[in-house]
Amino acid sequence: MMTVSRKTVFTVAAAALGLACVALVFELAVLARSWWDDDEDRGPPPRAGARVVILCAGDSHTQGVGARRGRGYPGRLAAMLEKERPGYYDVINLGAGGANTSQAVESVRRWTAHYPRRASVVIFNAGFNNVWNLRGASILPEDLRGAPDDVLYRRVLAESATWRLGQITRRRIEQFLGDLERKKDEHRGLIAWEGEGERAFLTRWIVRDLENLADLAEAGGAAVALLNYWNVCAWQSAPYESFAATGRAVAIDVTHFGIEPWTPALEKKLTTDDRHPNEEGYARIAGIVHRALDGRGLLDAPAVTE
């Protein structure tokens, strides 16, 4: 009969225990990662005790590109409100660089799904990226919204006549698809917004997203404030203004940071080389937003608690 030494038994047991620990750590890591991804996906939770929760949704101009972390307009607005009434307000930044209007609305949908009836105001600033980013676009058929870029843009090209997209736009999409095949992915405008068909396409798309946003906000008892860009985005401004005229949203104008007359020297002072606001520019936007919300009584209405 074969005998096994005590040392061998301990060695095997230690190895088994070690493998079990590794497996456990791996499982916990995967679980923690899923929690993290979920939190990242929906954005931060509302601060405990906050009575007015303000969601800021949009693209890089909301995210705060061009400033240090927390120094974009949402962070500046939060600092102003905290100074006025500590603990009463919470400003949550859902901005994501490169987001189009559909993606920005989706960020609000995800957040409100996890924290229903907690937002009092949704500030929305997106639309610039709609000319190059059609991912998840609400105006497209549902089967295209999650499709890979090559499938998405080939279909848009094939059906360009349906959306009345002109020759310049078609040529740009063809070039973009060629770049994808060569594994080049450059940030460029695809939709030639100056064209009549393209302008109508962008307007329908943005208005549809604003309607979806207003539906989400109204279902949760929140007001909607639409923020334009400091340098005016032609294909965004008109749909925002027309939608605000319906009474379902208020418009906040931050053109030239509220400064007139506007000069190149002021642009250099308040923006970065890529035309994002710098920290001083974001501070001015936050001031305009604060005055607009306060003037409409939107800072006084408490959020409905869970």
In which order are the strands of the major sheet placed? 2-1-3-4-5
Calculate the mean pLDDT score and round it: 87
This entry's quaternary arrangement is single chain
CATH class bucket of the largest domain: Alpha Beta
**Beta-strand share of residues:** 5-15%
**How far apart, in Å, are the first and last alpha carbons?**
70 Å
Count of DSSP strands? 5
Main sheet overview = 5 strands, parallel
User: Would you identify the CATH H-level superfamily of the largest domain?
Assistant: SGNH hydrolase
Q: Could you give the order of the helices and strands? A: HEHHEHEHHHEHEHH
Radius of gyration equals 24 Å
Number of domain modules: 2
Tell the overall outline: globular
Q: Which structural class do the helices and strands define?
A: alpha/beta
Number of helices: 10
CATH topology of the largest domain: Rossmann fold
Would you identify the CATH architecture of the largest domain? Answer: 3-Layer(aba) Sandwich
Uncertain segments are 6-39
**Helix percent band:** 40-55%
